Amino acid sequence: MYHKVDTDILQQLVSIAGEENVIWDGERLEPYSRDETVGLRAEPEAVVRATSAQQIAEILKMANRERVPLTPRGAGYGLSGGAVATQGGIVLSMEKMNHILEIDKANLMVTVEPGVITGDLHRAVEAEGLFYPPDPASLDSCSIGGNIAEGAGGPRAVKYGTTKDYVCGLQAVLPSGDIVQMGGKLVKNVTGYNLLQLLIGSEGTLAIVTKIILRLLPLPAHQVDLLVPFDDFQAAADVVSAIIARRIVPTAIEFMERDIVHACQRFLDKELPFADAGAQLLIQLDGNHQEALDQDYETVGELCLEAGARDVLVAADRPTRDRLWEARRAIIDALNHESPENHMEDVVVPRAQIPALIRGIHELAERLDVRILSFGHAGDGNVHITTLRDDLDNETWQALVPEATEALYRLALSLGGTITGEHGIGAIRRSYLPLALEEAQIDIMRRIRAAFDPNGILNPGKIFP
Ligand SMILES: Cc1cc2nc3c(=O)[nH]c(=O)nc-3n(C[C@H](O)[C@H](O)[C@H](O)COP(=O)(O)OP(=O)(O)OC[C@H]3O[C@@H](n4cnc5c(N)ncnc54)[C@H](O)[C@@H]3O)c2cc1C
Fold first, then answer.
1. What is the model's pLDDT at position 329?
2. Looking at residues 314-324, what average pLDDT do you find?
3. What are phi and psi of 296, to 5 degrees?
4. Which residues line ligand 1 (CB under 6 A)?
């Protein structure tokens, strides 16, 4: 069992990190008691804002010795409760370790501390003509360390992959307090087990990431976005396969159902284009040669019209492109505005199974007599599905959420998918892990975790049922 943070432990934290970096009073603890997961809250007993790997090593040694649980925290923008200290203890915040240490143009690598906000990294490398593709919709708020711990993805995954495809080196502090270097500015590396990839998506349960080396690409010179309305989702989905079959891989292919666009209109308090269409696709293409890009987007436009698109709106300049993305970027806020109590899932299925998933969701909404709205990444099969409480009474809502959640998971699994594509298991999905993974896999994962952290001090209460 774990020990509470008492005066002695607080004194040890202060002597390691300095009084200015340790928080223990109620009001100042509150912001660290939640992330962006609706309805989840747990106040830590203390927060430490770390400033170096050496400091973190000392804190971990102490937490291990005293058996105090420790929960790493990036920017607190997670959607599965990973940064919430559900078992109490210490929250280790990376907010002060937020420096871009080096942009190495010769090796096309950037070295950063984990607290760097993802959008700041994008802007810094883009100013040098370089490109870091992973683009979670939360990029102006979340941190690179959180992206690594969650294995974050984003709309550009269809062409460029996710965070895991860009991490070449990590410095990490193990629960024992050992500081280890994994990989480096290396494109190739097969030296021993790939522990670096094991840390990606480990949700802060294996080690604390303290330095990160990321691979960069040259920034594509041109970009174009297309907003395309369809009468129904099936036509929109058919076009996605047709585009890819023509060997054009868009940077992003996002979809929004009509009810989502209507929710965005209400939230933004303005008319949005094609709001009455059954479904919309937002397609982004990029490339270095304007002529080739023009050819591709004309082909994409033709394919859309052949599949029954009502129109194709093209945006090549930044302000028009931003206008097309306005609704997509506002969706989560619009859903919260629509019904402050809601429940979001992010299942993933093979791309071609999205229409079957959407049909199943409509049937489920009808059966449960509740609004379930969907949007997401048509290009990679990851769909965000939100059940809205609206005016349901509390008892009905509390019974409905687990029923809807399990039905959605079973639907995704029956289509060859799984229960989360981006947001992770964290605190809120752990009881469902056995639906998605065999006992033998869960057992190996538990043993890996125990090998890193025999005393189970790092982010307990996450991932495992
Ligand atoms: C509006 C909105 C849109 C979103 N869109 C996307 C999206 O498009 N794609 C996507 O993938 N996610 C998305 N998310 C989810 C979220 O932003 C990501 O999971 C993000 O990676 C979280 O980063 P963070 O810095 O906020 O991490 P936190 O929430 O602070 O932490 C997340 C996890 O990482 C661990 N952790 C943090 N830092 C470290 C570290 N240095 N070492 C070890 N463990 C660490 C924590 O313990 C926790 O388990 C969205 C969230 C919101 C609110």
1. 84
2. 88
3. -65, -45
4. 35-36, 71-79, 82-83, 94, 114, 136-138, 142-143, 145-147, 149-150, 152-154, 203-204, 208-209, 332, 422-423, 459
Q: Is the pLDDT of residue 328 over 90?
A: no
How many C-beta atoms lie closer than 10 Å to residue 404's C-beta? 21
Instruction: Identify whether the C-beta of residue 140 lies closer than 8 Å to the C-beta of residue 170.
Output: no
Question: Residue 176: which of 208, 210, 198 has the closest Cα?
Answer: 208
- The tokens describing 195, both together, are 């522990």
* Atom nearest to 135 CA in ligand 1: 8
Its pTM surpasses 0.90: yes
Q: Give the N- to C-terminal CA distance of the chain in Å, as an integer.
A: 17
- What residue type is 288 in one-letter code? N
pLDDT band for 326, please (50, 70, 90 cuts). Answer: confident
Site to substitute for ligand 1 among 36, 118, 138, most atoms within 8 A of C-beta? 138
Q: What is the DSSP string of 113-166?
A: -TTSBHHHHHHHHHTTTEE-----TTTTT-BHHHHHHHT---TTHHHH--GGGT
Q: Is the predicted pLDDT of residue 301 greater than 90, yes or no?
A: yes
Q: Whose CA is nearest to atom 9 of ligand 1?
A: 136
139 pLDDT band, cuts 50/70/90, is: very high
- Average confidence score pLDDT of the chain: 96
Instruction: Say how far apart CA 284 and CA 249 lie, in whole Å.
Output: 10
Distance from the alpha carbon of residue 141 to the mean position of ligand 1, in angstroms = 9
Instruction: Please state the rounded mean pLDDT for residues 316-339.
Output: 89
Q: What is the pLDDT of residue 1?
A: 82
Q: Mutation test of ligand 1: which of 95, 135, 142 has the most ligand atoms closer than 8 Å to its C-beta?
A: 142
Query: What is the DSSP code (8-state) at residue 83?
Result: T
Distances, alpha carbon 230 to alpha carbons 8, 126, 136, 243, in Å: 64, 34, 26, 15
